[in-house]
Write a structure and sequence with these properties.
heterodimer; A: mainly beta; 6-stranded mixed β-sheet; 4-stranded antiparallel β-sheet; 50% strand; B: mainly beta; 0% helix
Chain lengths: 117, 117
């Protein structure tokens, strides 16, 4: 079964600095999808960024970028120019290959990110 | 309304009560999901519906009963719950199969905070 591991329960960063959140996963598949979600105190899960395993180029969304290392099964999230509004729980999630019908996301345990002003 | 909505946002019920959680997606998606988020545990998938057909039941106790009358609505019927069922229940939707660049991305509702007394 696929598993997702986030080894950093908590992280903190100074406002305007850069922080990297780690995620590793275990799968025997070659085609899959990886996501980072953000869950602020409101508890609303918000999609931050996605990465398709077949793409070699790392995904970027404004201040958010990933470092996808397929051989190492590593998928870290880098947040540049951290802002107070970035404070939240961050979850890494895995989705298996394209098959007919829907598939679940497998989530990591989450990393709580604190932004220090 | 936009995105994914859930009602009620908060629910307190006794162990002998019967209640229902409602989810509605306004994104034109063809798959819907129920997840459970407990303290100190990763998000756990409960049920998946694809094109209104249940495709996964993740060993959930029978006191939880899902219903998907159409591709926009999803219900979770609750009866004779236990205190350990207290959690945040999240609904999500996605577009599966052939589609645009946002396919397979799951979009979440704000959740229902359930307390069983």
């Amino acid at each position: 079964a696929q598993t997702v591991t986030q080894s950093q329960p908590e992280m903190s960063v100074q406002e305007a600095e850069t922080v990297t959140l780690s995620c590793t996963y275990d799968t025997s598949e070659s085609d899959y999808y990886l996501f980072w979600y953000k869950q602020p105190p409101s508890r609303q899960m918000i999609l931050v960024i996605r990465q398709e395993a077949y793409k070699q180029q790392n995904a970027t969304e404004n201040r958010f970028s990933v470092n996808f290392q397929k051989a190492a099964k590593s998928f870290s999230l880098k947040i540049s120019d951290s802002q107070l509004g970035d404070a939240a729980m961050y979850f890494c999630a895995y989705r298996g290959p394209q098959v007919q019908g829907a598939q679940k996301l497998v989530f990591g345990q989450g990393t709580r990110l604190t932004i220090n002003p | 309304e936009t995105g994914v909505t859930q009602t009620p946002r908060h629910l307190v019920m006794g162990m002998t009560n019967k209640k229902s959680l409602k989810c509605e997606q306004h994104l034109g998606h063809n798959a819907m999901y129920w997840y459970k988020q407990s303290a100190k545990k990763p998000l756990e998938l409960m049920f998946v519906y694809s094109l209104e057909e249940r495709v996964e039941n993740n060993s959930v106790p029978s006191r939880f009963s899902p219903e998907c009358p159409n591709s926009s609505h999803l219900f979770l019927h609750l009866h004779t719950l236990q205190p350990e069922d207290s959690a945040l229940y999240l609904c999500a939707s996605s577009q599966e199969g052939v589609g645009g660049p946002k396919r397979y991305e799951q979009y979440f509702g704000p959740g229902t905070r359930l307390t069983v007394t």
